What does this fold into?
Amino acid sequence: MFDNLFKPEHLLIILVICLLIFGPSKLPGLGKGLGEAFRGFKDGIKGGTETPSDAAQRQDAASKSETIPPPINPR
It folds into this structure.
């Protein structure tokens, strides 16, 4: 039933559906949140060897590299 589930054609269809649902502007944020969730899960499985200050430094570095333009206010 689940043979050849992740063929390139299927992944392309999934990507198109995600674009239609979330829009191209929200996909990077969605991917970032998903990556952070997987990273947190993996750290939790390993036993959480990272200290809170290390996590804060990593988050600060990520926020500095990301620039978001201010919203346009039409009048």
